[in-house]
Amino acid sequence: MEKMLREIRERVMQNIEEARASQSLEQIRVGILGKKGELTSLLRGMGKLPPEERPKMGQLVNDVRQALEAKLEERAKELQEKEKQARLAAEAIDVTLPGPERGAGSLHPMNIALNKMVEIFVGMGYEVVDGPEVEYDHFNFELLNVPKNHPARDAQDTFYVEDNIVLRSQTSPVQARIMTTRKPPIRIISPGRVYRADEADATHSPVFHQMEGLVIDENITMGDLKGTLDEFARQMFGEGIRTRFRPSFFPFTEPSAEVDLTCANCRGEGCRMCKGTGWIEVLGAGMVNPHVLEMCGIDPNRYSGFAFGMGVERITLLKYNIPNLRYLYENDLRFLTQYR
Ligand code: DAH
User: Fold this and answer.
1) Which domain holds residue 73?
2) Which of 9, 206, 245, 253 could join 257 in a cystine, given CB atoms 3.0 to 4.6 angstroms apart?
3) Residue 99: inside a domain, yes or no?
4) 192 lines ligand 1 (CB under 6 A)
């Protein structure tokens, strides 16, 4: 029996030493010291021993039990500490790891171009004014001298909200609004959205942007208009970009011109963008029709003025050499992030 005890002690000591988790220690404890444990049954079997041997054997069994219990406790502490460390390591947050990348936003190329356009005119002393996109026929057409039967008034071209209310088809109604509410000198620009019943394609969109300009004062001439647009072209596209005025017609200006700029892509040589002409049409302009001045309450005998309207998309495409209007509206980040 003594030998058995020694053998149990050594084997269990070894098992405890080799245990890798608190849970396995518990299994070992139950197996040896539990109600049906090895040592417990050994103790029970002592009844069969001769009485004189019992105390000594009892002592021995107790010693073994104490030794094993002590060992179990010691190992349990070790393992619990280890398990705690492992848990902490697993839960640890590495604050030095890089976070998910959040790209910085950037301006839309059209906003970059528009900001530049505005900056140029503000630098020349213009004030930026706003106007409504849902507009009265009165301002969009009537005060601009657009006759009742003019094709632009057709529902094929203009979106009607009501009989006398439209989605403005140009930024020119802002001219009429300003002229009817202010006294000269007037020097304003007005960028904004306009609407036309056009199919979307490489150069058309039912919603697009224009920037209107208006100057009214004494002695304003066509020379002032040309000088202003020349200076705009130079600042917007660089030295060597010239303007070309072609006679045209708008009901609200007289004389009227369509204005071309030297193609910024080929610098006038002729290329695909300018269809070989070296020029690109970017705006309409003219001297404000005296009849319009009169309708808006400005004395045409004392004052004269010029006006222009340019396409913001047009200028953006030119500035950045973008081949198709749709790129501006599709919001593909691969395209948009190229412009900063
Ligand atoms: N509103 C015209 C258009 O949409 C552009 C324009 C032409 C504006 C001549 C003007 C102007 O102010 O004087 O085509």
Assistant:
1) 2-90
2) 245
3) no
4) no
